[in-house]
Specification:
The protein has 13 helices and no strands. By secondary structure, it is mainly α.
């Protein structure tokens, strides 16, 4: 059960990504035009970087652009340079933590989220650190981070993360509460329905579990 829950929890990445100030919001232009526009922006940004290679903000900006283009390797390289130039800037730390989680490197993601919090509390960094700690089976600290993220900025993503953590701890009534809140906030999302189905199944509520899994 624990392994399957970890794997299901990995599907939360899109929800977590949306907490990064909308940086990866999709453009509304048709796909071919959008791709051309992004490529042109990449060329222009690279030209600016050639004249200002010590500008951490430009490296971070190009990392976001590369991620929008689907280039995770290039994004990780660029954001790592931004971190090197400005080690405690929270935005590059948050982005690199996200990329490291996607690459199944939770220990490094944990370090980035922690360093990003050095300049002050941020809900997205606590959420990312909760995910990293859950992946490392440090469930008590993961739960504390998810609680803190919810205190700072209540969101469906944070409730989903806390629900996964509570599921791994076997706290099924609390899973039903958090996953139910997330389902109401994001009715089109599969994640809360999956969690609700798991929780009902573990409680022996077979009809409710079947209904939730069917809806997912």
């Amino acid at each position: 059960m624990t392994r399957s829950l970890h794997r299901a929890g990995d599907r939360l990445l899109p929800a977590v990504r949306l907490t990064l100030a909308g940086a990866l919001a999709l453009l509304t232009l048709p796909a071919p035009v959008r791709a051309q526009d992004l490529d042109a922006r990449l060329v222009a940004l690279t030209a600016r970087l050639s004249a200002a290679r010590s500008d951490a903000g430009l490296w971070h900006e190009r990392a976001l652009l590369r991620l929008e283009l689907g280039d995770r390797v290039g994004a990780l390289a660029d954001v790592s340079e931004a971190v090197r130039l400005d080690p405690f800037a929270p935005d590059p730390r948050a982005l690199r933590a996200l990329l490291l989680l996607a690459a199944d490197r939770p220990a490094e993601a944990l370090a980035d989220a922690t360093d990003g919090l050095a300049r002050g509390p941020r809900a997205d960094l606590y959420l990312l650190r909760a995910r990293a700690r859950r992946a490392l089976d440090d469930l008590e600290r993961a739960l504390a981070d998810a609680d803190r993220a919810l205190e700072l900025a209540p969101s469906a993503a944070a409730r989903l993360e806390r629900a996964w953590i509570r599921a791994l701890r076997g706290e099924w009534p609390q899973v039903l509460e958090d996953a139910g809140d997330a389902a109401r906030a994001e009715p089109r999302s599969v994640e809360p329905l999956l969690l609700l189905g798991i929780a009902h199944r573990e409680r022996g509520e077979w009809e409710a579990a079947a209904a939730r899994f069917g809806a997912a």
